Q: What sequence folds into this?
C-alpha cells in the first residue's frame, strides 16, 4: 500500500494565501490609465452638489416628526451628505414637511427666496401636495405647495416613512446628476405666485376687546357671577348733586 506524500510547507503557504487573501497586496503603479481621471465640468460639478445636499430645518406639522427621525442614529441620513442647516442662506434643499396654511405661506416663500441657487424642493406628505384631509373643509390650508414655490419631487403619504424620504433623496440625486450648466437657465421658474414685496394693505383689527368693556357685557357678567347689580355707574354718581345737610 503506497503512502501519500505530505505537502511541503511551501505548498501549504501557497494554499493559505490563495484561500485567505486572494486579492493580494496592492501594488503602486505608474500607469497613466490608473492615475488620471477624465471627466467633464458638468459631471464634476453635479457630483459635488448631489453628494452635499444641505436641507433646511423647516417643518410645519406631523410630517416633520418623520423628517426629524432621520437625524438620529437609527437612520443617520448624514451618510448621504445631507447636513441640516438652520439658515436658508446655507441650504439648497427645502423639504416642505406638513400642512402649509395661508398664514405660513409668506414665510415659506421668503425662506425659499433666501436660499441660493441652485435649490430644490421636495413636497412631503399629502397635506403639502394637495391639502390632504384639510382640502375639503379648511379655509386656511393651501391646496398644494406648488401654488407658492416650484416643486422638484413629490413624496406622497400620511405621513411618509423615513425610508421613503431616502428614496426621494436618491431620485433627487439622479436629477441633479443629469443637469447641465448650459441648460440651467431653462429650468429656472419664470414666474412666482407670491413674492416678498407684496401688495397687502394694513387694516384696523376687527377684534379690539371693546365689547368686554360694554355696559351690557358688564351686567351679563355680574348676573352670571350672582353679584348685585350696581345702581349706577361711577360717572352717574359723580353727576348727581350732593344731598342737602340736615343741620341747615
A:
Amino acid at each position: 500500500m503506497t503512502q501519500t506524500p505530505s505537502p511541503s510547507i511551501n505548498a501549504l503557504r501557497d494554499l493559505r494565501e490563495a484561500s485567505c487573501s486572494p486579492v493580494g497586496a496592492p501594488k503602486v503603479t505608474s500607469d497613466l490609465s490608473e492615475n488620471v481621471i477624465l471627466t467633464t465640468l458638468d459631471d464634476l460639478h453635479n457630483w459635488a452638489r448631489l453628494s452635499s445636499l444641505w436641507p433646511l430645518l423647516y417643518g410645519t406639522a406631523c410630517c416633520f416628526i418623520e423628517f426629524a427621525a432621520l437625524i438620529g442614529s437609527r437612520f443617520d441620513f448624514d451618510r448621504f451628505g445631507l447636513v441640516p442647516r438652520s439658515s436658508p442662506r446655507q441650504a439648497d434643499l427645502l423639504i416642505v414637511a406638513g400642512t402649509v396654511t395661508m398664514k405660513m405661506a409668506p414665510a415659506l416663500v421668503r425662506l425659499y427666496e433666501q436660499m441660493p441657487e441652485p435649490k430644490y424642493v421636495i413636497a412631503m406628505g399629502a397635506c403639502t401636495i394637495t391639502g390632504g384631509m384639510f382640502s375639503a373643509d379648511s379655509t386656511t390650508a393651501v391646496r398644494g405647495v406648488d401654488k407658492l414655490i416650484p416643486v422638484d419631487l413629490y413624496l406622497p403619504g400620511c405621513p411618509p416613512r423615513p425610508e421613503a424620504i431616502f428614496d426621494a433623496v436618491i431620485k433627487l440625486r439622479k436629477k441633479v446628476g443629469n443637469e447641465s450648466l448650459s441648460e440651467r437657465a431653462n429650468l429656472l421658474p419664470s414666474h412666482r405666485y407670491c413674492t416678498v414685496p407684496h401688495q397687502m394693505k394694513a387694516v384696523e383689527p376687527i377684534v379690539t376687546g371693546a365689547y368686554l368693556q360694554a355696559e351690557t357685557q358688564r351686567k351679563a357678567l355680574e348676573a352670571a357671577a350672582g353679584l348685585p347689580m350696581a345702581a349706577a355707574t361711577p360717572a352717574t354718581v359723580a353727576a348727581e348733586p350732593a344731598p342737602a345737610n340736615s343741620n341747615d
Remarks:
- The two ends are 158 Å apart (CA to CA).
- The domain at 54-179 is CATH 3.40.50.12280 (Rossmann fold).
